């Protein structure tokens, strides 16, 4: 299977990807929520277009340069979910706004002033969401009164059209029970709705409530009032959704093919995938550095840059030359390490997929 | 300073790099040790050529595809310090051996047979080092008798010229005192010398003893008998050498420029460098995810993919838009995330340096 691929290689099952997208779009549509997927997970035009074709309303980018790549390839409805700070970046943002329908976010006065000045220079009001803190103190303004106070301070900046709130409830990834995840999902909705009401009661016109993690977006039923979800990871799934039981192995589209390159003893096997393939990312509920498909008895207990160290309690029958499949702890960081990933279907490589925005971190 | 660079950006001080290379070459030359630097740290033709120009005898590559890039650009004396396993990779290795002077390594019978078959097909004996375990059970054969036993098993493979031993003493990175590092360095030398003697007493002709970490290569005085060191990290230095006091801040050539993008409270600042810039790598003796130059009071306590979370015990005076410099925990994984790094001198950008072998993990 996939004999033509040299390892390590990233394979992505297209049937699973297509099902994951359709399920996410359909689920959210039931509750009148639009899906604007975060493309940081795949950084590829191919998958972004698959998402748009299957009902997504636009995309979310992590950085300005990711958005540039997407616009270059004809994708025009984009939320940049990161503050654009500094004159040079604002100039580049301006060039992008000239060519596409870009939504921005702010979480500081400095950021708001810079963006507004850009809007004024361009002679338009830039569509802007205020980031509301989702519990991880990542730069969002605290929900409720603090957000109202912030909104009042930026209200008169004439280059901005403050039209929505942006929220990332990152603490949800610390939950591994359905009950805990539902509670956090309800909190996302509650904090956004209350803050929206407060602002609109004070003369604002907040119509977009954007939230999203690949946990809460699965619980769309509890996202009352939310208008858009930005889930990104769900397209592949990984250890972060597999270990807490949110998905099954057959929902995990992205795997790393790796070869056993040495067998120092009967318990240990060394593979050709290290931190430059799998990254050092661990997860709240994952074990080691990835899940070895068909070998639940084996743990990837350590990584060097080019070596993965696997061990089992009983002797294992892996031998030099064997090829294994790994579901990584965190899929979103894997395509970024590659120029190309391989789209597979029914055990055959169907398409080489360029990771167009690989490395775009600016 | 470096105002023209959008952040996050990787800057590399060329004066420091040149000094680091020259010091390493000179130090080892005093003890008759050649320096064959590991280019996995920089993955760039520019720096490989700087190393060769300043007295290195060749280079070490982590993977076949890294070596391909180097050969493509005219660098011809290469050790591939990773087992080449499987028919497809061996074929590509053959193409490379046709064009350059490649040294290989083996640590399994399967690997030895594959390599020998390639040599036979090519009508030549391939220069091959046996990997001796350096204490981390990464695939090397245990020093002494086990290596002799292994060598006897592969002796009659007619495609191989068994000419040396390869050793990576990874446990040395667990030491943070000069005494501990010297002890481990002496052990490298002792295990290699004893194993060499044992083999040569049994009819082998082992002339190359290759070792190397950026810790032990600084202790060349204690590397008796070693003929080549493969140190790689030393060209930049990073948290792994800075925190235990092996180098000073002014020896750290690679830094990440990053911008404060939000200031959620007076103790916290959020920067635009996360795991896709700094990686999740920690170090034995580092604190957080990097050392913030000029701000020893600040810790990078958490990373998301695009966000770095910084905190100080007392209120800090960082503000949105400020640009900081970070010395990463582990420099070797940073250039790999970028197409380009910036060579700087006296505070000015002198040259854009392509990371030619970025992402070459095969």
From TrEMBL, chains A, B:
Keyword Lyase recorded: yes
Biological process, per Gene Ontology: D-serine catabolic process
SMART domains, per database record: D-ser_dehydrat
Ranges for domain D-serine dehydratase-like: 253-345
Keyword Cell membrane part of the UniProt annotation: no
Gene Ontology terms for molecular function: D-serine ammonia-lyase activity
Pfam families, sorted: Ala_racemase_N, D-ser_dehydrat
Protein keywords: Lyase
Family affiliation: Belongs to the DSD1 family.
PANTHER family: D-SERINE DEHYDRATASE (PTHR28004:SF2), ZGC:162816-RELATED (PTHR28004)
Protein name: D-serine deaminase, pyridoxal phosphate-dependent
């Amino acid at each position: 299977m996939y004999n033509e691929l040299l390892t390590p290689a990233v394979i992505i099952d297209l049937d699973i990807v297509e099902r994951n997208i359709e399920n996410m779009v359909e689920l959210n549509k039931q509750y009148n929520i639009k899906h604007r997927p975060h493309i940081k997970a795949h950084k590829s035009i191919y998958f972004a277009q698959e998402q748009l074709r299957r009902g997504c309303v636009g995309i979310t980018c992590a950085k300005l340069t990711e958005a540039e790549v997407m616009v270059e390839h004809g994708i025009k409805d984009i939320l940049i979910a990161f503050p654009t700070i500094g004159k040079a970046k604002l100039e580049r943002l301006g060039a992008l706004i000239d060519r596409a329908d870009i939504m921005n976010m702010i979480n500081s006065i400095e950021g708001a002033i810079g963006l507004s000045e850009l809007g004024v220079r361009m002679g338009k009001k830039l569509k802007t969401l205020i980031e509301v803190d989702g519990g991880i103190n990542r730069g969002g303004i605290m929900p409720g009164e603090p957000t109202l106070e912030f909104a009042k301070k930026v209200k008169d900046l004439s280059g901005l059209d403050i039209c929505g709130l942006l929220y990332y409830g990152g603490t949800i990834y610390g939950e591994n029970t359905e009950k805990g995840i539902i509670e956090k999902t309800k909190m996302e909705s509650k904090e956004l709705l209350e803050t929206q009401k407060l602002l609109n009661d004070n003369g604002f016109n907040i119509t977009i409530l954007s939230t999203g993690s690949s946990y809460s977006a699965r619980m769309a039923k509890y996202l009352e009032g939310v208008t858009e979800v930005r889930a990104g990871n769900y397209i592949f799934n990984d250890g972060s959704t597999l270990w807490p039981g949110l998905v099954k192995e057959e929902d995990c589209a992205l795997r790393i093919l790796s070869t056993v390159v040495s067998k120092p003893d009967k318990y240990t096997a060394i593979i050709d995938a290290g931190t430059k393939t799998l990254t050092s990312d661990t997860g709240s509920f994952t074990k080691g550095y990835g899940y070895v498909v068909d070998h639940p008895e084996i743990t990837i207990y350590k990584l060097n840059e080019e070596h993965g160290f696997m061990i089992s309690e009983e002797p294992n029958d892996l031998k030099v030359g064997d090829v294994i499949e790994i579901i990584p702890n965190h899929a979103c960081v894997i395509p970024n390490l590659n120029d190309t990933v391989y789209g597979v279907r029914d055990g055959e490589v169907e398409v080489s997929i360029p990771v167009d925005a690989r490395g775009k971190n600016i």
